[in-house]
Design goal:
The chain is mostly helical and 96 residues long. It contains four helices and two strands; from the N terminus they run H-H-H-H-E-E.
């Protein structure tokens, strides 16, 4: 079951980022999602950010939209993420 869950996280991360035009090699994707490698460029930072948000969602399935919005606002204020785009295509880049 754990292996299937990891596979689903990798597939979700890959598909979501590809929709936004964000790509990396399959090897790097697997390393980043498994948290075995540091991102080397903006695309990989986006992938790592998605991984982190996905982990947060899985750890806290009852999290409210208000909590997510407050958390993003806090991360923006602290300079830990950067807002990219606007409207429905808004994304966030993890700055670390």
């Amino acid at each position: 079951m754990e292996s299937l869950c990891e596979f689903a996280k990798i597939q979700s991360t890959d598909a979501s980022n590809r929709i936004e035009g964000i790509f990396t090699s399959e090897k790097r994707l697997n390393e980043i999602v498994a948290n075995h490698a540091q991102p080397k460029n903006r695309n990989e930072r986006e992938i790592a950010g998605y991984r982190d948000v996905l982990a947060l969602i899985h750890e806290s399935p009852d999290i409210s939209l208000t909590t997510v919005e407050r958390t993003l606002h806090g991360l923006l204020t602290q300079g830990r993420v950067e807002k990219v785009g606007a409207g429905r295509s808004t994304g966030y880049v993890w700055k670390g």
